[in-house]
Amino acid sequence: MNDAKLLTAGLGGLGLELSEKQHNKFLAYKELLLHWNKTYNLVSRNDSHRVLERHILDSLSVLRYVEGMRVADIGSGAGLPGIPLSIAFEEKKFTLVDRSLRKVRFLRHAILDLKLKNVAVESWNLNGSNPSRQNASSEGSAVARDVEFDTVVARAVSDPQSVWTMARPLVRASGRLVIQCGLNTVLPESFSGAKIVEDTTLTISNSGAQHRALVLKKCEG
């Protein structure tokens, strides 16, 4: 099955009907990842033959949990899940956050190459209490450090408690954090300032790949 058919089948399995333009952006993003991966190590070399299933469709599997207009992807790395979600959600505004300046350079190139007008990129050090902007060009960046987001997403960043600690200052009151993690990830007894509203296993239909989606809602006040 070629990439176009594989993508169409995968999107259908997720219940998504997107435009031809969006399909083409997913395929172009896949090629960018493979090209830059040669020198930037954005994804595992073992995944080079399954980028669509392992990374793009996997990222889109949490689309149903993304609420509100402002979305941040922390520890974005190669733009996962932020870039696939931004292609699917053209009306929402996304901020991709990563501490690695090398990866920030890739992300800025990607949003220009893919013409993603709803995406900004930031280099922040997320220390759990005071997210601070690092020394990086502000080109392509239009979001102040103190902006709060309706939804923050994180894919394979760290353990859930650490991710919540990093994300908490960025999530607005009653906003949510969506964590993609392994099936056997151990959860803490509770999350200070948040409650679990969803904990489920998601399956990519055409590959059978599975991961866990954990959704936290930030308590008001």
Could you give the topology of this structure?
Layout: H1 3-13, H2 20-40, H3 51-60, E1 70-74, H4 82-88, E2 93-97, H5 101-113, E3 119-122, E4 124-125, E5 132-133, E6 149-155, H6 160-167, E7 171-181, E8 194-203, E9 210-218
Parallel strand pairs: 1-2, 1-6, 2-3, 6-7
Antiparallel strand pairs: 4-5, 7-9, 8-9
Helix pairs in contact: 1-2, 1-3, 2-4, 2-5, 3-4
Written description of the protein model:
- It is a single chain.
- With 221 residues, the protein is an alpha/beta fold.
- It has one domain (3-218): 3-Layer(aba) Sandwich (Rossmann fold), CATH 3.40.50.
- Helices cover 32% and strands 25% of the residues.
- The protein contains 6 helices and 9 strands.
- It has helices at 3-13, 20-40, 51-60, 82-88, 101-113, 160-167, and strands at residues 70-74, 93-97, 119-122, 124-125, 132-133, 149-155, 171-181, 194-203, 210-218.
- A 7-stranded mixed β-sheet has the order 3-2-1-6-7-9-8, with helices on both faces.
- Helix 5 (101-113) links the parallel strand 2 (93-97) and strand 3.
- Helix 1 crosses helix 2, helix 1 runs parallel beside helix 3 (51-60) and helix 2 packs antiparallel against helix 4.
- The longest helix is centred in the N-terminal third of the chain and has 21 residues, at 20-40.
- It is globular and about 50 Å long.
- It starts with a helix and ends with a strand.
